[in-house]
Input
Amino acid sequence: MEKENILHIFPNFMHAKWMKVAENSKKLQEIRLRVNQPIWILLDNSEWFLSETGQLTKDIKQAVCSKEKELEALLSHICQYSIYAFTDEIRQGYMTIQGGHRIGLAGQVILENQKEVRNIKYIRYMNIRVAHEIKGVSDSVLPFLYRDGNVLNTLIISPPGCGKTTMLRDLVRNFSDGTEYGEGKNVGVVDERSEIAGSFLGVPQNDIGVRTDIMDACPKQEGMMMLIRSMSPDILAVDELGNAGDIEALHQATHCGCKMLATIHGFSLEDVYQKRYMKEVIDEQLFDRYMILGKKNNRCVVNGIYDEERKICSNWQELSC
Amino acid sequence: MLKLAGVIMLMLGCVGIGISKVNEEKRRVRELRQIKRIIIRIQNEMIYGKRTLPEICFLLSQYVERPYRDIFQEIYQKLAENRGEILEKLWKEQMEVGMKEMPLKEAEKDILCNLPEHLGIQDETMQAADIGQSLDMIAEHIRQAESELESKAKVIMSLSVTAGLFISILLL
Output
């Protein structure tokens, strides 16, 4: 990733301050800005602070704090000076910007009818999650995800920060473009949080393949059914299954003949089996493959790929991704 | 004969100056109406299109007449390059350069130049309403300019003819 890609997140007058961070763009994972608190940076899984001179430091005493005005200017810049056009995103608490980076927002919530979030004002906490598209990350697992040239229903299980979305994105690209194990398929992606394609103004910022259609910023349940009706995909991809509605839509999609590619939070297959709604899905053998991601020596690895009977696939060996 | 020709030429010159002054006033009204159309379009794109300002600049660069077309084109291009340009500053700079030669008063130019100062409201309806204040101001300036035009045109023409006659008499 180019350093300009990171610098452009910030308005001109902040560029000097963020130059050093931008130079480390390849290792940069996260930037956290909190009003009157030190600027926190996660670089290659290591915690740093930003100093007054724009240097990276481990010493919190040298760290510079985020100022209210700076946060306002940054938000305004991120929203292209058109905050009114991003009300829906702000209401949800996050937005995706050019480059596919995701900005999490927190502040004072304005409620409507005492329960629904209408907006967030005084946005004083920002979390910039830097998107890292790693092409080819899924190449080594592909042989396990095809049977007779057809893609198998696959569930990616991973704890946070182990590359679940990165793996999903690369699988979408591979399934869409076609691989040596099977020809390219039409893939429908319900990108509820704009993390897979990283769409900005409707244009995907990541390579998600030539046969991929995206329903951006759409709830999974509605998005899956809309895509099935409108785009008749061969494969449906969704990130982070969570509630009963998602599972219901999953059933409907598989009944329509779509192959499913999904992710879920979890540490192991047993862990996911304990989750509400998921026991039924696993028992019914809705998925043919379960891919377990994890971390080893600070590196994301595929801990195992299991078949529909929850047995580890033959020829399996631990893969680093 | 020569004197008569001189008088006619002098009169024509003075009347010509008068006509150009009246045309300048007419152009001022036209420009104010154009600014009004631009602000209305911005407002509509905000409410109904929920478009961002760079997008609106692009649309306006296709829709409005010169010099605004070039101004909006320039703003859009600079913002599209995504070099961290601050819209408020960029907008003001481009507007000031582009509107320099226009027969408008400073206060009238400022309405469009300072438009981004009204930005930053999270609700699109409120944001559009806020921009509506600029619309009210421009409407007021148009009313003034139109009423001034009628009376001013007569005064300017009378003065130019009178000045022509006066200079002719002096020279004769």
